[in-house]
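ingest -> validate -> predict -> emit
validate: passed (alphabet ok, no gaps, 293 aa)
predict: started
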Amino acid sequence: MTARASRYVAGAAAGLALTVSLTGCRTDEGKGDAAGTDKPAKGVHLTAAQEALGKASDSTADLKSFRATLSTSSVVSGRQTDLKGDLAFRLKPDPAMKLDVPAIKTPGKTTEGFHEVFTDDTVYLKVPALAKQAGKPWVSFTTAELSKATGVDVKGLESQGRQADPALNAKMLTASKDVHKVGTETVGGVSTTHYQGTFALSDALSKLGTQQREEAQKIFNQTGLDKLNFNLWIDGKQLPRKITLATPPGAKLKLDTAMNYLDFNKPVSIKAPAKSQVADGMKLKGAGSNTPG
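emit:
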């Protein structure tokens, strides 16, 4: 992955950095293809925990909006990066997202974070380095332009509701073959049932629609990951209240990420920054290049 693509992914995928955010969309508007059906094969008996994950996937299929807090800690080549942020997402009728990450922490240093807004087929980024080059607080890219610049099919990801969608998260977790109930716990003042398990990325990707599976596979092939550990807290309405993901011991890339879901189906107002505050990202030096740097 190019440096530019990595910077975009780091921002857009802050929630569930590898498994969820990079694949980035509701799977064919919640409908799997023949390879991605959620229904067990004939003669296959699900455990109670697996049935609970299936119900959570069904319960999230028709969500119109959600808010969440998220945190991610990753270690790449011995360097740790930590960030926390707030996410607001409108899934229907017109997908839009707002992500605010106030700060990014690395060993011995805290730097200013970033802000991202997606609406009307355009991504707006407020990143210190870009703002310095552009001379304005925000830079914008259409999804088509960003796809060309990063080499990732951003338009395909953005247009269907993309990263951190609880429906996508729950759907991928149904791939687990060892999920089990841990107990009952309170999350954000809500009584939940805690489940824990692992899943293979190849199995999780099979839950996605064809286009999203192919795009995700391109990214995962570069990570070297093949398995993730997870924890899932489900409330009485079969909605996910918290999800954590972590790479297993010994993985080349260390990742610990958590998402706490706050509100479901409440009005979400997301607006583009004022035009006077936005520069055209494609006019920045090197914006059209898909080479490392």
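The first strand starts at residue 65 and ends at 76.
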